[in-house]
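User: I'm putting together a teaching handout on how multi-component assemblies are represented. Below are the sequence lines for each component of a complex, exactly as they appear in our records. Could you produce the 3D structure of the whole assembly as structure tokens, so the students can see both representations side by side? Please keep the chain order the same as the input.
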Amino acid sequence: MRRSYFPFSRISIGIRLVVTSVLSSIIILVGAAFVLSEIYRRAAERAFDERLYVYIQSMAASIASKNTANAYDPYGLGDPRFTLPLSGWYWQIRIEGSVPQNVFSSLSLFGGRLPRLEDLHVPAHDGSSREGYIIGPDERRLRLVERALELPDGARYLVQIAGNADEIEQTIQNFKNALWTAFALLACVLGVFTIFQVRFGLLPLSRLSSQISSIRRGLSDHVEGEFPDDIAPVASEINLLIESNRDILERARTQVGNLAHALKTPLSVILNEASGQSTLLAKKVREQADIMRDQVNWHLERARAAARAGAIGIATDIKPLLAGLQRTFLKIYAAKGLSIDVDCPDDLRFRGESRDFDDMVGNLVDNAAKWARQSITINAMALPVVDGRSFLEVVVSDDGSGLPAEKRADVMRRGQRLDETVPGSGLGLAIVADLAGLYGGSLALEDSDFGGLRARLRLPSL
Amino acid sequence: MRLLVVEDDRDLNRQLVKALGQAGYAVDSAFDGEEGQFLGETEPYDAVILDLGLPKIDGVSVLEAWRVTGRKMPVLVLTARDGWSDKVRGFDAGADDYVTKPFHIEEILARLRALVRRATGHASSDLVCGPIRVDTRAGRVLVHGEPIRLTSHEYRLMSYLMHHIGRIISRTELVEHLYDQDFDRDSNTIEVFVGRLRKKLGVDVIKTIRGLGYLIEPPTTL
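Assistant: Of course. Below is the structure of the complete assembly, with chains in the same order as your input.
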């Protein structure tokens, strides 16, 4: 067996297309989801920071106007979370330069302190503002923004506002959930479309392959119909191939036929020349010419069969063939007054050449007709399908004297020991067994119900 | 009995003509399909031996053409292609029997006798009328069991009349069926042959029907 160098070489085109397109879709979708989440995170943080800066703005205004009368909400932020202890929302003001450092903070901070972002090496923007994440006194993750203020009187402040970072995470999480759900749905839709696309795209190929298989089974003898430009050449090449196969077989058959004609006519002449005389030479010539005739017949039959075996996509309706043989044998044996009954279903088809069928069944009927007393029956029927292969059986029975069981194998083997054949004994049954074998069928001989011989010929069918 | 042999092989054709002539037939021969078809359509043959592999027009076509134009003479087909398909084709075209090449000439003779007999409605190879018996197998005539020596023309005449027993046969018909194409025909010789036959047989089975021809009447059975 040929080794395959590419491990995936047997995977179907459809699966290749579907797998690659689904994989690339997934990679693109996952990448897009990550990028979108990151963009959304930034936007969510900025929106949160903006809210916090609004508080800083309001505190800065209060500091500048020194309006800090209300102990609970000295800067008028109006948000009760700044007064609830450890609520996650804090503010803090440091008066820079004072020693010890003067720090004010919201009630919610409960005596704790917020760290300086500057000390955490967070870079400033606009020269005085910083924002970043810290861990607050309640061990919670906080979003902290701070701004340095310098009043006209020279006092410097650091105003800080911290909010619960869970809020940001929550919105981001919500967004992510929605995003992944949407993308998962999108992936499914894409997958379905891909499968449809591949199916549709590969439709001509599967049509071509089903046509080829019907040619192989003999239902059709060439590829029919229009094909897309990409595979139209393949279809026409297949047709050309089938045609050339048929041509080669036809030529081989004609040549064999011509050879038969060319050999047999001179043989007739030799035989007839010799038959008029009774000399020893004439006797020898007759004897040898008879042997030559048998040899020629045998080898021509074999050559013809070999030329035919391997023909592509040929099938034959057998009912008309059986009817033709019936007409022929009724005429040949008219003097004998034989009756020949044929029973064959209409739709039975032999997977092979009509000439071979004629030769096989013709030889069987000829043999039966030689031995029959009055009647011959020919029954054709389909056999049950075995391993997906269907066969038909042609049973030829006669009411003659029959053939003893021990001689049956002999009759069928004779062809292989041609030198021992008696002239004129005929190669009939041996060549039938041989031809049937070439087609993957068989020939069996048994006792018939009418006392004579019954030949069962098994052949491939459609 | 007059026959036509259509066979393109010169040697085989010659052998057949010779053997058939010896067996007491008047024989014409043709070497291709065209000539064969023409002769078969124009001459009244009692049987034809037709090779299927012929130049110009193949044997099956010749046979079909004959049957289409209503020529009903029995045809024995010779073929080198012994596939059953060819035989079925031959028989469907109108053949009455076939012989596969190479053959023994005796087989041809036996088949021909059977064909002619069947075509004229006789069951046996012995044609009997009262004391007279024509043994077509051996090609001789017996009266009361005693063989009579006849020339080949006398035998042909006797055999033809016996094959068509009970029918009036005109002189023209006799001439057409007893002589081959190349023979110098003269219907007066028929009278001479009939006269000789009557003398040799010693019994008057051949009746002359004035203005019509000759007749052998089947014996009336009581």
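A couple of points students might notice: DSSP finds eight helices and eleven strands in chain B. Chain B touches chain A at residues 9, 11-12, 15-16, 19, 53, 80-85, 87-88, 91-92, 95-98, 100-106, 114, 118 (CB under 8 Å).
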